[in-house]
Amino acid sequence: MTARHGRRRRARPGADRAAIAAVYGLTEGHRPAIAAAALLTLAASALGLAQPLFAKQVVDAHTGDGAFWPPLLLLGAVFAAEAVTGAVGRFLLERTGEGVVRQLRLSLVGRLLRLEMREYGRLRNGDLVARVTSDTVLLREVVSQALVDLVTGALAAVGALALMAWIDPLLLLLVAVTVAVAATVVGSLLKRIRAASERMQHAVGSVAADLERALGALPMVRVHRAEEREAGRIGDRVDEACTYGIRTAKYAAVMSSAVELAVQGSFLIVLVIGGLRVGQGQSLGDLVAFLLYASYLVLPLSAVFRAVGLIQRGMGAHARVAQALELPVEPACPTPAGTPPSMPATAQDDTDTAPALVLDDVHFTYPSGTPVLRGVSFAVPRRGQVALVGASGAGKSTIFALVARFYEPDSGTLYFDGRPAAELSREACRERIAVVDQNTHVVSGTLHDNITYGVPDAPDDEVGRVVRLTRLQGVVDRMPDGLHGPVGEHGATLSGGERQRVALARALLTRPSLLLLDEPTSHLDAVNEAALTAALQDIGRQCAVLVIAHRLSTVQHADRIVVLTDGRVTAQGRHHELLATSTLYRDLAVAQTLARRAEDSAGAAAAGAPDGPDGAPPGHGAWRTHSIR
């Protein structure tokens, strides 16, 4: 352990240089503006360095009974020129810093939206958001201030020291000793500032992640009366960030005080010893100039020390941003392939008649190491409805994730319209499909924004078509602004069933060749469920429909049912065929039928209505026809 830590300490100087080089790399495309700002800052420093010389002339002219008005006016002009030049240079730096942050944030956003799906399961969304927001703000300060201040401050300090050496080398030696003491103190604090800053940035990211976690599940938090517990959890992260922020401030305060004491001590030493030497015949103008340079040295030295400290603090933010920029993303181009895999018979037909989707001996295991799919094979024709059924964990949702190209199979092949997925980009595959999953996603905006999310320029008649098809007209009529009424954050103004119908409308508007539905009727009442079931039959005549279904009302009308058990296809066929041939399907059907009858009986008893024949509520004869006895 000690040896390993020792290696880390020895490697840190190289790591620091690499990090500074990486931060410098962020300025690419902005270096002309930074160079111009640096030149203006140096010009302002040069004008500042000239002022003590003019002040010396004013004092010498006054003590020597000369005309001191010309050098005094010139001193005022130089002072004004320094102020204007410095302000323009600082504005250029701030504008450049904003440009760098804009470019960096756009890069981060573009990458985070294209990460491999497994990365979202490993990382926390709130922490990723913090890297785009708070971490980039700290890097802006590094780019817009620290890098230029480090260079210009060092050059200005060197210039001031050179002029001080020209005026009085002995006094400069005394100043150098006090500055060296301050530099030693600052050097001992830099690593501590960096470490504390890194931990503070991580803690801030944890605050954002925990807050996003709580707000994303706020109804659950409220129902379980967990507000205090969640507030305590987030409070612990806030306290951690505060602790490391105070620690960073403490080190920075000690560093700042060391610099100020060194400068003030130097000034006092110069004032005392220089005053004694003036009494011995040294020029008063030389002492005034030296004192002005000693006081002027405060600004560049403070800028250098502040820049070094800021760079150390920025290294933590840079490490987090760089880590995010290196996360793996989905490839933009088709996966290179040598010889395309041979297609099964079901996928070798002409393009116009080839199945919309074929899974051929597909195996898949999540990063956790648990196999999910074990040689799954089935086909979805270009028209009609195929239903996936099976117990929870059988692999149904995983098949959807593979079809959407969120993951790639470990072995086996997926075919879209007869073409292997490896020959197609993810974009080309996703152009063919639309997905409505269990978590119905409704984003902040209007109802129209959500329905047209996949086709922003959809004509009004197409929007009206899907609104009618999904029975959303009542929702449109209820909203004060109709289709352009806001739905709230995550669709807060809509019920669960309405959010599901919005997701369905959004999917249907794209007119996909393959529609993936994950239990589309789970949040619908009986009337809307029957209407949607009929609509799906119509949709199945226009495109392929692959549906994960648990309700018999959805499954029994499917053209083909695929039964999954522990990641394997154990049976395929129509509803009446599987009732006779598949024990698992029959068990699932019986269990669901009994559960539905119990719900219906409870509803009838609560309403005080008499039971129909065989104990079923009135009006459920159709359901009884398909029940398993």
Task: Describe this entry's structure for a reader.
The structure is a single chain. With 629 residues, the chain is of the alpha/beta class. The protein has helices at 2-25, 31-63, 69-112, 117-122, 125-132, 134-167, 169-216, 218-223, 227-279, 284-296, 298-325, 396-403, 426-431, 447-451, 460-469, 473-478, 496-509, 526-540, 552-555, 575-581, 583-607, 621-625; strands at residues 357-365, 371-380, 384-390, 411-416, 419-420, 433-436, 514-518, 544-548, 560-565, 568-573. It is elongated, with a radius of gyration of 36 Å. The two termini are 69 Å apart. Helix content is 64%, strand content 10%. A hairpin with a 5-residue loop joins β1 and β2 (371-380). The model is unreliable at 1-11, 335-343 and 609-629 (pLDDT under 50). The longest helix has 53 residues, at 227-279. The protein has a six-stranded mixed sheet, sandwiched between helices. It has a four-stranded antiparallel sheet with strand order 2-1-4-5, with helices on one face.
List the helices and strands and how they pair.
Elements: H1 2-25, H2 31-63, H3 69-112, H4 117-122, H5 125-132, H6 134-167, H7 169-216, H8 218-223, H9 227-279, H10 284-296, H11 298-325, E1 357-365, E2 371-380, E3 384-390, H12 396-403, E4 411-416, E5 419-420, H13 426-431, E6 433-436, H14 447-451, H15 460-469, H16 473-478, H17 496-509, E7 514-518, H18 526-540, E8 544-548, H19 552-555, E9 560-565, E10 568-573, H20 575-581, H21 583-607, H22 621-625
Parallel strand pairs: 3-8, 3-9, 6-7, 7-8
Antiparallel strand pairs: 1-2, 1-4, 4-5, 9-10
Helix pairs in contact: 1-11, 2-3, 2-6, 2-10, 3-6, 5-7, 6-7, 6-10, 6-11, 7-9, 7-11, 9-10, 9-11, 15-17, 20-21
